[in-house]
Amino acid sequence: MENGKTENGDSQPPPQWKDKVVELLYWRDVKTSGVVFGASLSLLLSLTLCSIVSVSSYIGLALLSVTICFRIYKGILQAIQKSDEGHPFKLYLDQDVALSEGTVHKYSDCVLARFNTTVTELRRLFLVEDLVDSLKFAVLMWILTYVGALFNGLTLFILGLVGMFSCPIVYEKYKVQIDHYVGMANKQVKDIIAMVQAKVPGLKRVKAE
């Protein structure tokens, strides 16, 4: 594998990025994970009460209030002490925050590969290349109609965020028990599908010629 690409040419995210996400979701660094989870949850909860424009404005005002106050405080302190420490944020102002072309190409290639894979899979499902898979997809869409009636998109984002930061650590702790019950459930589902395929004519893995 070279330049973030597999043998078949598909782009993959850099391993460092994956490792950081895993460490974050598995709470390897409790402080960092807590800050990210708390900030993300607070942002989503704020969006349930205010519009995204208001939330963005409040966050911007809060950050500006902190930086302006700190800038004035350091300026007064330097004037009293007659020191010449310079701008208090000089270290951050001198940092290069521009994205390199290589970084942009690397992540855009990854996004493009995922997008193409998704489009290909949706085409396969909607054009019924495999009847069983298309029926499963139809059942999923039918279930999502009820989910959409119970929750709005923002609520689903909140539930998804909580699940992302809780399910991995719960699974890691109770992996054996969860795998046992999931295996039992998968076996029952496969048995039901096999039974339906055997009884309904033309349902057994019919693929488009």
UniProtKB/TrEMBL annotation:
Q: Where is the signal peptide?
A: none
Which Pfam families would you find in this protein's record?
Reticulon (PF02453)
- Record's GO cellular component terms: endoplasmic reticulum membrane; neuron projection; postsynaptic density
Q: Any idea where the Reticulon domain is?
A: 21-209
Q: Write down the PROSITE patterns for this protein, in alphabetical order.
A: RETICULON
* InterPro entries xref list: Reticulon (IPR003388), RTN1-4 (IPR046964)
Q: Per the UniProt entry, what is one GO biological process?
A: brain development
Chief location category = endoplasmic reticulum
Instruction: Please give the superkingdom of this protein's source.
Output: Eukaryota
TM spans, by residue? Answer: 43-73, 139-165
Keywords, A to Z, come to: Endoplasmic reticulum, Membrane, Transmembrane, Transmembrane helix
Instruction: Report how it sits in the membrane.
Output: Multi-pass membrane protein
Location in or out of the cell: Endoplasmic reticulum membrane
Q: What is this protein called?
A: Reticulon
Organism equals Salvelinus namaycush
